[in-house]
DNA sequence: GTGTTATTGAATTTGAATTATCATTAGTGT
DNA sequence: ACACTAATGATAATTCAAATTCAATAACAC
């Protein structure tokens, strides 16, 4: 992919930004496509990938790596938090705060730089529709 | 992939089991290949995949989903623990215990079933060789 | 409005991880 | 040892996310 930031304000890029703001949870490229198509009928998935890459580069989005699934993206600049994934519909949601009370004990010679925490379960929508 | 458990005791399967026992950390299929080849010179990567699938099915191995990387596998039946991934060499290591003190607070209507915790940093080998 | 050129859409291609194919090899019960 | 057939090895095929291609379109500076 070209690594340059896309500078023009296109309807598509605006629709993609709106999709992330409206969802208020980490979205996969496919989910971002569905969200963006609410504003622009025929956005291409390629445009989604291009603009996500651009928005990540300009630090408007950050990447959320999900174990065993494709990456999600969320609006950048939020406070330290972690994520919840519904084991039924695979949507990812934001969790407030952090349950880590103490620095994890690492083996001798290991250095800590960061941590990620994932909670699994059923989201409200899936619980209601079952 | 065929879903049947492989029941015969082949040199290759034994070598694969030995690789996991010796490593004592979650291995990727590629890592398992390298480990198994210490006992059997020309194991095929296809055999690694077949036997890992079989060993997972017979619950001798469990899958470790790693954010942003391919799955690792570890010997099953261990106590609750989490994992460390070296950001330099990408190896995954086992961490003793669990730093989660309190159940995470979930949004209204969400149900908890499990959690995963990943610590990132530099492993001892990489710290020494830098 | 016009011209320039970045961006898009649609389809194709890539790359990697994993799975399938099939002839050959080797476990296993007898 | 023999027969049966599961497992292997080597490679091809598949999958799927992500990147690329290129002609058509549309931002934006003037």
Structural account:
Two copies of one chain form a homodimer. The first copy, chain A, is of the alpha+beta class. Chain A has two domains: 11-75, Arc Repressor Mutant, subunit A (Orthogonal Bundle); 82-128, Dna Ligase, domain 1 (2-Layer Sandwich). Helix content of chain A is 30%, strand content 22%. Chain A contains four helices and five strands, in the order αααβββββα. A three-stranded mixed β-sheet of chain A has the order 4-3-5. In chain A, a hairpin with a 7-residue loop joins strand 1 and strand 2 (72-75). In chain A, helix 1 crosses helix 2 (29-36) and helix 2 (29-36) crosses helix 3. The first copy, chain A, starts with 10 loop residues before the first helix and ends with a helix. The model of chain A has no long low-confidence stretch (mean pLDDT 94). Chain A binds chain B through residues 65-68, 71, 82, 84, 87, 93, 95-97, 99-124, 127-128, and chain B through 65-68, 71, 82, 84, 87, 93, 95-97, 99-124, 127-128. The structure holds a DNA duplex (30 and 30 nucleotides).
């Amino acid at each position: 992919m070209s690594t340059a930031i896309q500078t023009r304000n296109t309807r598509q890029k605006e629709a993609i930004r709106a999709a992330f703001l409206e969802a208020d949870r980490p979205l996969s490229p496919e989910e971002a496509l569905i969200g963006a198509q609410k504003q622009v009928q025929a956005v291409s998935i390629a445009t989604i990938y291009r603009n996500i890459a651009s928005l990540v580069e300009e630090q408007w989005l950050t990447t959320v790596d999900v174990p065993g699934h494709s990456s999600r993206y969320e609006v950048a600049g939020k406070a330290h938090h972690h994520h919840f994934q519904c084991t039924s519909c695979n949507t990812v949601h934001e969790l407030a705060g952090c349950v880590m009370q103490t620095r994890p004990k690492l083996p001798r010679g290991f250095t800590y730089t960061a941590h990620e925490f994932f909670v699994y379960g059923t989201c409200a929508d899936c619980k209601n529709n079952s």
